[in-house]
Amino acid sequence: GAVVSQHPSWVICKSGTSVKIECRSLDFQATTMFWYRQFPKQSLMLMATSNEGSKATYEQGVEKDKFLINHASLTLSTLTVTSAHPEDSSFYICSARNARDNQETQYFGPGTRLLVL
Amino acid sequence: AQSVTQPDIHITVSEGASLELRCNYSYGATPYLFWYVQSPGQGLQLLLKYFSGDTLVQGIKGFEAEFKRSQSSFNLRKPSVHWSDAAEYFCAVVHNQAGTALIFGKGTTLSVSS
């Protein structure tokens, strides 16, 4: 149990286009999902916290108008990179907390690698 | 603010040898502590976690970690490393309030030599 999927796993796009990444909890309901970004050989940096039915909370330095997050259901959160540029190329990872889990365990998706040309 | 430090950027261990990866945290109260492993190009897999109780926790793949409050440490250990353990290891902490995200250390890359 506690499987999180991400789609797509790989995406290559032209500069200026928008890319949507989906994060789904497959076998549990997630009231809270998190989006992280990871540059090569570096750690994961939290971008935003996504709560179902409310606006996402963005970390300092993360442009909310550029990285649009929608958490419309208890099993799906989406991250849209708008007007992507080469510097947005990165590995984007989501995680989800089980709504029924009293503990703070997060389950991670496999990540989405974005390459902006 | 809470933080996590992994002092070792890269460690090489011979296959069959023991392993210890260091993790120190900075936090006022008792933190929730985690170790994750990431294989190249993959997401993160939870190895083990500590919330309370027995300070020696057992995880998957033969890993264990010990919470030492006096040293603010949560070091990861394995008695005998296998070549498949080569990966990136992240220590993480979360504030013990619901819904707070993880704070990760910078990671330790483990290489296994034959």
How is the secondary structure organized here?
The complex is a heterodimer of chains A (117) and B (114).
Chain A lengths: L3 E4 L2 E4 L5 E7 L6 E7 L5 E8 L5 E2 L8 E7 L2 E6 L8 E8 L8 E3 L3 E5 L1
Parallel strand pairs in A: 2-11
Antiparallel strand pairs in A: 1-3, 3-8, 4-5, 4-9, 5-6, 7-8, 9-10, 9-11
Chain B lengths: L2 E3 L4 E5 L4 E3 L2 E3 L5 E7 L5 E7 L5 E3 L5 E5 L4 E6 L8 E8 L7 E3 L3 E6 L1
Parallel strand pairs in B: 2-12
Antiparallel strand pairs in B: 1-4, 3-9, 5-6, 5-10, 7-8, 8-9, 10-11, 10-12
Give the overall pLDDT of chain B as a whole number.
90
**Approximate strand percentage of chain A:** over 45%
The share of residues in helices of chain B is under 10%
By DSSP, the count of extended strands of chain B is 12
Instruction: Give the helices and strands of chain A as they follow along the chain.
Output: EEEEEEEEEEE
Specify the number of helices of chain B.
0
Q: Helical percent range of chain A?
A: under 10%
Query: How many helices of chain A in DSSP terms?
Result: 0
Largest sheet of chain B: 6 strands, mixed
End-to-end distance of chain A: 37 Å
Strand portion of chain B, in percent?
Answer: over 45%
| Shape field of chain A | globular
Biggest β-sheet of chain A, characterized? 7 strands, mixed
- Class from helix and strand fractions of chain A: mainly beta
Low-pLDDT windows of residues of chain A: none
What structural category do the secondary elements of chain B indicate?
mainly beta
- Give the CA-CA distance, first to last residue of chain B: 41 Å
- Largest interface, chains and sizes: A-B, 26 and 24 residues
Number of strands of chain A: 11
Which value, in Å, is the CA radius of gyration of chain B?
Answer: 14 Å
Could you say which overall geometry of chain B the principal axes of the C-alpha atoms support? Answer: globular
